Amino acid sequence: MRHFRYFLTLALAAFSFVIGCTRTVDSGGRLTAATRADPKTFNRLVRGDAVIGIVTNLTQATLVRVNRSTGALEPRLAVNWMTSGDGLTYTLALRPGVRFSDGEPFTSKDVLFTLKALYDAKLGSVMTSGFLIKEAPIVATAPDDRTVVLKFPAPYGPGLTIFDSLPILPSHKLAASLEQGTFAGMLGVQAPVSDLVGLGPFQLAQYVPGQQLRFVKNPHYWVRDIQGHALPYLDEIDVQIVPERNAEMLRLESGDLDLLVDFARPEDLASLRQQESQGKLKLVEAGIEINPNNLWFPLAAGASHAKTKPWLQKEEFRKAISYAVDRQRIADTVFLGAAVPIYGPVTPGNRDWYIADLPRTDYDPAKASTLLKSIGLDDRNHDGSLEDGRGTPTRFSIITQKGDSIRERTVAAIQEDLRKVGLGVDIVAVERNQIPALWGQGDYDAIYFSPQADAFDPARNLDFWSSGGSFHFWNPGQAAPATTWEAQIDGLMAKQASTLDAAERRKLFADVQRIFAEHLPSLYFVAAKAIVPMNARVLGATPAVIQPPVLWNAEVLKVAAGRR
Q: Is this prediction's pTM over 0.85?
């Protein structure tokens, strides 16, 4: 007889899932949000970017959800679950009476189909690598329509939180395409919107390229509030496509938008606060962002730019830059006080994993100069600029995103600080979509940017921490760790990801952060305060420091009647 211990005990009322909301504002109405770009597909297994994230969040549902505000694991399509004593097997009871947006019933068959598509070798989903535990898949079986058994190949610290990002897809609509090898082309932007069937609070009603995505209430949505009212409250969410941030701000201030795509820019805060004082907007500080920009160099052996500038790959060079940059000045001048200095990739916004006592490279230009001189970079001709041993001026370029005022101004501040210690910097601003290509080709001296993480738990971001990870920025996809310290981090992260003891996981990750701080493979300077502006008529919002900051719980959003 198998021994099970309860992972979670939940009190549920008559099979209905309830959300605590006590406001009495009438339901209905339309909320207007924005996104930067058109979707390339509506198929989350095929592509992962900000706009598909919004579409998926509104139209799909997952087995469980990590609350973006509290970090707590919450039941969704799985009403409760048990885990085996060895931590490898989870038995999930699925919520009864749930239907897809087209009225078809949801069963365990849909969970099995989703896992089959996720791991399909021909499809090659962009999500597959994140669902491999020690390079092996999670095996799903279903003894009946209401039960799913998930067998992990090895102990996994984050447990079921891994399923927070996986939308459960309708087998009745998509199973045939997977068998025929055409799944990747399903749910394209040219397909009828009726093809996008899901379990989320809304369904896509209209897509007008370059203009908008219009979502309407899913009449079959299964969540109710604590008073028994059916969710979502809103009748409609209109997501406007606004590529340019200044235009987006104008729409918010004019009342044409209720929500921004992202957090507020520091340069907009004065105007936003004025509108807040007039009762037109409200600003909520959700915390400190968890995806700070960082500066990295190509550290792979044989990197083309390092052949003529070998000092780019020196640890002393990176430490010198970290000492040379005045973080507080950037926080005060670029962010106008709406940021805090940081020294590593984990910010105070990630409450469970941040540690405050890391080694710090506080502003110290003299120490920076000493480090630079130790690797042969010196002002040999006394002109205020450093030269290498061949007399070549020490100069490098930093690529960043064109039109992103925070990134451009931060790099300009870095440029000025490095000039003071004799380093020449050229700023190369390119379109956002060019950065991944230049990075992938290794065609850069340095990049200042920030790809987005979608989870708090570091074990769910192994693509960054592990030497073989595809987002190990400075030297991705290593067949074997290139350095001793990367091997140490790999070992610690392997233990951290497979340990079920929460305290031990925190200790292991603290050790990882200290090793990272010692070697500084990428440099972090400031993390912005996550200030979320919204129209004053928006109610029920619980802004978070992770994207999307407001639409993550769209089902409980409301708009005050009579206000626009």
A: yes
